[in-house]
Every structure is written in C-alpha cells, then in structure tokens.
Amino acid sequence: MATATHATAKKTAKTAPASKGPDGVALLKADHRAVEKLFGQFEKARDADRKKALAEKICLELRIHMQVEEEIFYPTSREFLKDEDIVDEAVVEHAAARDLMDEIEAMSPADDLYDAKMTVLQEQIEHHVEEEETEYFPKVKKTEMDVKAAGARMAARKDVLRGQLDRAEGKSLQ
Ligand SMILES: [Fe+2]
Ligand SMILES: [Fe+2]
What we know:
Blueprint: H1 2-14, H2 24-44, H3 48-78, H4 85-105, H5 114-141, H6 147-169
The structure holds fe (ii) ion (2 copies).
Residues 66, 69, 90, 94, 128, 132 line the site of one fe (ii) ion.
C-alpha cells in the first residue's frame, strides 16, 4: 500500500543522526556570562592582589574564548553567511581587545590608568558580546551550519588551551 511506504520513508528521514555535542552558540554565550560575572567581581574588588588575580582570570578566559571563536566558530560560520562583514568586524574587535589586555597584563593595579583600562576593556567586550548575541549568532542559527559539531570541537579545544595557558601563566585565582 502506498500509505505504508510513505510512513516508512518519513520515519527514516526523522531518525537521521544529528551531530553530538553542546550547541556551539550556547557554549559561547555561557562563556560570555562567565566573563561578565568576573568583570562584576572586579568592579567590587578593592584589594590590589584580588584585582590583579581577577584581571588575569578575565584576560585568560577572554583569550581562550576568542581563540576558539577564531579557530572554529568564525571560519565555519563564514562559509554559511551571505554577508561576512560581521565576521570581519568581530576579528578586528578581538584584536583591539588583545592589545588592551597586553597592556593590562603588563601593569599593576597601583598604576595610573589601570582601572580605566579595565573599564574600557569591559565596555569593549560588552559591545562585542551584544553584537555577537543580537546579530551574528541569530544569523548563524538561520543557516544550515552544524552548531553541535562546532560546539564539540570548541569544547575539546578549550580544554587543551586551558591546560596550556594555565601552565604558562602558573597562577590561578584563589
Ligand atoms: Fe564571543
Ligand atoms: Fe568574539
């Protein structure tokens, strides 16, 4: 019967395997929330050692996050987006944040402009995150990009980078 054949075909299409892994967009948004929380802690901190430790943690988290975006999420999504300007702008914003982080990491909380540089970094990151979450990520979600496959690759890469950077910095918070 034609009805039975149709039902079987439908079932097969529905059970096609989806990629396993965390949703890449959700993973990146969770990173954003974690960094926002750290910036909030920095704003309240008064002790110089605590400020230095928080600033280092913020820079470490941002560097890991930006690297997985640049190695995996940005190039993968670039292939699916019609307009690549948003990706180019994100890369330029990352470079500006890295320059500021280089300056901050070379300074001490007692230095003039230390707090100002942290405030400007926070403002730049807030702007960047807003663009990613309100423009970039929604555009990606409308494409055929496999965000779970990207999420799995980013999660694995983050683990490797965290191990490398933690060892290189030789310090951790608390
Ligand atoms: Fe991001
Ligand atoms: Fe980014």
